[in-house]
Amino acid sequence: MTDSTHDEAHGGTLGSRLNWLRAAVLGANDGIVSTAGLVVGVAGATDDRSALLTAGLAGLLAGSMSMAAGEYVSVSTQRDSEMAALATERRELREQPEAELLELTGLLEERGLSREVAREAAEQLTERDALRAHARVELGIDPDDLTNPWHAAWASFLAFTVGALLPLLAIVLPPTSWRLLVTVISVLASLVVTGWASARLGSADARRAMLRNVAGGALAMAVTYAAGALLGAAGV
Known about the structure:
By secondary structure, the chain is mainly alpha-helical. The protein is 88% helix and 0% strand.
C-alpha cells in the first residue's frame, strides 16, 4: 500500500507541475499576443518610438497586473474551497468514523481492489492518517500541498511580462523601416513555440495548436494595425 500511496502522491505532484507549466506557457502567450496587438496597432498610427514604448509598457504593466490579480482571486477561491472540503472531511471523520471507513473502502474498491484488500488498505491508511487518506482518495487534494494564490499570482505576472517583452523590444529597437517586419516575424515565431509547448504539455496535436496560435496572433495584429492606420489617416 505504501507503493500505491507513493505513486499517487508522485502523480499528483507531476500533474501539479504540468498545470503550472501549462499556465506559464499560456500566460506568456497572452503577453505576446495582447502586447503585439497593442504596439502594432499604435505603429499603424505613428512611427514615434516614444509613443510605441509608452503604449507597450502600459500594456505590459496593465496586462501583467491584471493576470496576477485574476490568478490570485481564482486560486484563492480554489484554496478556500479546498480548506472547506478538508474541514468538512475532518468533522465527518470525528463524528462518524465507521461510515468514513466504509466510504474509503468503497472508493478503493472502485479503483480495482478486491473487497478484502480494499478494507485492509482503508484500515491501514486510516490508522496512519485518516484525513490525508480521504483528502487524496476522495477529494483529490494533498493537504500538505494546497494551492498558493501568491505563487500563482507571481507566476502569471512573470509569464505575461516575459511574453510581452518580446513584441515590445521588437517594435522599439529596430530602425523605423524594419520594426514592423521584425515584430511580426518574431511574434509569429514565438507563437509557434508557445503553441508547440502547450500542445506537448496537453498531449495534443502540435501542428493544429501551432496553426491556431499563429492564425490568432496574425489576425490580432492585422486588425489592430488596420485600426491604427485608419485612425492615423483620420488624424485622430
